C-alpha cells in the first residue's frame, strides 16, 4: 500500500479533494476524519432493540459475564445485530428485484410502450429453470408467467424459492440439512426481525443460522431475479469498450450523471440523450451536445450494455459535483449520500430523485413510472439542458480517463471458452486443474472513506493476478479497478502471472473481469454452479479454489452478499474491523462452524497484506483437498489446448451447414 496516499488512492479523486479542501468544502472524507466510530457499537456490543436500553456489554469478561437488562448475553446481542444487517441488505436487493419483476410484468401486459424484451433466449432459459412452458407460446405470455412465478418468491409462506434448484445438488443438500432453504424473500426478512426482537431467540447459533437463510433469499432470490430480468429486458451483456474516471465530463457539453442501482430509468435516459431533437435542444442552450455518465452500480448497468462511461464508485459522487461540470445528478436507490443536496448549492448541479423510497430535502423529485418511462426521461434530460447556462467557472476539472472492457456475463464467459456450438466452462476448469490459474477471487463491495478509498481494491487486484488468480469484479470494486486503468487485456501482459497471462492471451480477456453491479454478484454463483456441473473440480460450490473479498465494505447489503456466499460454500474476507468482533463465540460460528457445515466462512481483517495471504491460503488448501496439481508459478500440467478467438470463429464457420445440405 502507498504510504503517501491520504484520502483516496485514485489520483484524479485526490486532485478534486485537494481543490475542495483548499476552499473548505466538506465531503465524506472530511466527515470520516471528524466522526470516529463508536468502539462499542462498531464491535457489535451495543443493543438498542428495546427501550430498556441501549445496553452496552463491555468489560474484561464481557463474553461470559455481561448481560443486558433483559439478560441477553454479548454473543446474543452481536448475533442479533449481524442478523438485522443481513435482513436489511436482503430487503434492499429484494425491493430492487421486485421492481424489476413489476417492469417485466408491465411489458408482458402491454402496459408500457417504452420497454421490450431484448433477449428472448434468456427469457426462455429462465422459463425453463423455473418450470414455465415456453415452446410455441407468444413471448409476452411466457414473460407474464415468468413474472408471476417470480412474484411468488417474495410472498411464499411455505416451500422453496424457485432458484434454489440452480445450485449444485450437494450444495442444496447442505442447505436442507441445516434448514436454511428460504421460503419467500419477504417471509425470511420478517422472521429475522421477529427472531431478533427483545424476548425472542437467544441462541447465537440459531440466530446466525437464520441469518444465512435470509441471506440466501437475497443471493438465490432477489438479486438473481434482478440480474436475469435486467438481461431479459435490456440485453445480456457482452464485452464492450468504455471509459472510467472523474475526467469523463466534458466542458462544452451538457453532463448528466445517473447514479444508484436500478437500470430501468437509466436505460430510457440512454435512449433519450441520443435523440436528434434532444441534441438540437442542447445546442440551442449553447452546448455542443449531451454527455451521459454513470456513478456506482447504475453506471455498471449501462456501461456493460451500452459503453456509457463511469465516474467511479461510492466515494466519487460528491467529487463529481465538485468538478463543477455536472448539470444534473439523477439518483434512484441505494448508496445515495444525503450530503449531495447541500453540496450542490455551492455549484449549479441539480440533484434529481426518482424513487419514492429516496427523497432528500433540497432535491427536485421526478417520480419514475415505467408506464411513462421515456416521457419522464425526456423531462429529466431537458431539465439538465436548461441548467447548462447556469454553469459556473468554479470547479476542479479532471482530464485523464482510462479505457475499460466491461460486460462479462455468465453467458459470455461460457461462450468465449468454446464458441457458440461448444460453449463450456471446461477450459476454465482445465486451466485451474493444470495450475495455470491458481484460483478465482470475487472482488466486490464498496469503496470506503475511512481508508484510502479504492486503495485496498487496487492493491489486492494487482497482487492476486500476479499470483495467477483470476479476478472477477462487481459493483464499486469494478469502478475502483476501472478508474485505475486495470480493466483492459493489456493489463494481463504487464501484471499477471505467467499462467494467468497465457490464459488471458489465448482467450483475449483481461485478468480482471467486470461482471456488473452489486446484484450481479449472483453471476458468480451461477458460474460456480456451472463449473461444478462441468466436473473435474468440486461437485459443489464449496471446496473450489475460490474466495470472495470485500476489502472496503460499508453497507448492510455487503454483509448480506458475504453471507450468501459463505452459505453457498465460499470463504469470504471483509476488509476492516468486525461488526461482531466483541464476541469470540459469534466469530467462531462465522469462521469455524460455518466452514464445517457449508465450506464457507466470514472473516474480517483490516490489513490488506493479511487479506491476500488468507485468500491464497484458502485457495491452496482447496487445491490440495481436491488433489489438484500443486501450484507452482510457470510450471503447468497438461490440459486441452486453449484456442484463441480466431480459432473458435473458424470452428463455428465450419460447423454451420452449407446451403442445400440436408434439404
Question: Could you explain the architecture of this structure?
Answer:
This protein is α/β, with parallel strands linked by helices and 663 residues long. It is globular. The protein folds into four domains: 11-56, no CATH class; 74-234, Substrate Binding Domain Of Dnak, Chain:A, Domain 2; 240-390, Rossmann fold; 408-646, Rossmann fold (3-Layer(aba) Sandwich), CATH 3.40.50. It has a six-stranded parallel beta sheet, sandwiched between helices. A five-stranded parallel beta sheet has the order 5-4-6-7-8. The chain contains 27 helices and 15 strands. 48% of the residues lie in helices and 10% in strands.
Please sum up the structure shown.
This protein is of the alpha/beta class and about 675 residues long. Helix 5 (about 75-110) runs antiparallel to helix 7, helix 6 (about 120-130) crosses helix 7 and helix 19 (about 455-465) packs parallel to helix 26.
